[in-house]
Amino acid sequence: DISIIISAIISLCYTLFGGLVSVAYTDVIQIFFIVIGLFLALPFAMTHPAVANIYEAKLDDGVTPAWYGSVAPHEWGGWVDYALLCLLGGIPWQCYFQRVLSAQTSTRAQLLSYGGAAIALVMTGPSVLFGAVARATDWSQTDYPCTPSGDTEKLVMPLTLQYLTPPAVAWFGLGAISAAVMSSTDSSLLSASSLIARNVYQKVFRPGCGEREVVVALWVIILGNCILATTLAIQYKDIYELFVLCGDFTYVILFPQLLLVIYWSKANTYGSVFSFILTVILRLSVGDKYLGLPAAFSFGAVTASCPTVEDPDHMCEGALPYRTFIMLIGLIVHIIVSGVTHLAFCLAEIDLRWDVLNCYQRDSSGYVVVLRNTREMDSPVKSLKNALDTQAKYVGKYSKRKVVTVK
After folding, report:
1. Above 90 in pLDDT, residue 312?
2. Quick check: helix, strand or coil at residue 369?
3. In this structure, are residues 31 and 39 in contact, taking their beta carbons and an 8 Å threshold?
């Protein structure tokens, strides 16, 4: 608990005082620690006397190495679900778009995206090989009393670093893990707090406020988020499961909305709101073991034979890819609702007083109804003009004074 609190205080300090610049520079330093630590420790772990050749053990086919693993027939639904969650669920994260949108040019933003994907792929290698090393290790020959299983399976990498490498190398390896955690902590703190400060505080509660007030609000929100995150880290020991759960909700709720905003110009707030509400209800209704929610209904199950020595006719059940089903339902609902409202206001020309979410307006001619906000970014001049108009509106509202004429 003390190490968690100290890490949180350090992350809070340089995030508060340095903002995105300090987070970016510390991320660069941390990535070097990760690269050096993991790649330095891997050879020592693989050549430890207690570790057998990772390619000796084979699966039932006699060809595939055992550490490759296999997917049972009844587990394919869950495997597909988690594969798509990892591939697509990480795209709508705020911390990623904060980096992309802060790039000076579109070319640099593209290089940042593709370069980050390539680096992530390369850095996956040591992590996977550490898992293979742990599988091929005779743990009775080490100082660790038993083979990692159950809850301790989640600690395979730190256990491998601590017990299969020299102390100095283990220090660098564990430092790499700490650097990775700190990198995620400061990025998440800044991105989540910026999102709340800009999209909630400034646009909903204080539309006419100045930049200084937004910065002060951002500081307060960062502090609150840090306290909340630290409490969760102390209270819940399975932080990885909370991380996966966050990716789960991001994939189910946000990915279809991001997809349509980028590739379909008719997507609007009506479709977004209906899709958001429906997907949240459906996702919570199917239950979640991490949140302790019972399932109100199910999309079905996959049944397959999995014979055992005691029961040759044993049947196993696995879940269908229900997350993907819910995501597709949200996508379809978003398209339908956005399409219907577009037809109603733009083609059927329903009176705009029924546009309760203020999505449509008439163009400069006064005859054609168009979306008020589109996925195309406004020009800098137009953005500045809109911001000045909004600020002038609220400043004028609160600064009216009674003029007294003295004769």
Report:
1. no
2. strand
3. no
Residues whose CB falls within 8 Å of the CB of residue 359, separated by 6 or more in sequence, listed in order: 268, 269, 270, 341, 345, 371, 372, 373
Pair 263, 338: CB distance under 8 Å: no
Mapping DSSP to helix (H, G, I), strand (E, B) and coil, where does residue 34 land?
Answer: helix
For 210-225, the pLDDT digits (tens) are 888 888 888 898 888 8
Q: How would you class 15 by CB atoms within 10 Å of its CB: exposed for 0-12, middle for 13-18, buried for 19 or more?
A: buried
Token pair for residue 208? 């006419």
Exposed e or buried b per residue across 255-272, where buried means at least 16 C-beta atoms within 10 angstroms of its C-beta: bbbebbbeeeebbbbbbb
Give the 3-state secondary structure of residue 116: helix
d(CA 1, CA 230): 9
* Terminal-to-terminal C-alpha distance of the chain: 73
Contact of 23 with 201, CB cutoff 8 Å: no
| pTM of the full structure | 0.75
CA dist 205 and 302 (Å) reads 48
**Angle of helix 76-88 versus helix 322-342 axis, rounded to 10:** 50
Express as a percent the part of the chain with pLDDT over 90: 10
Element of type H or E holding 126: helix 106-135
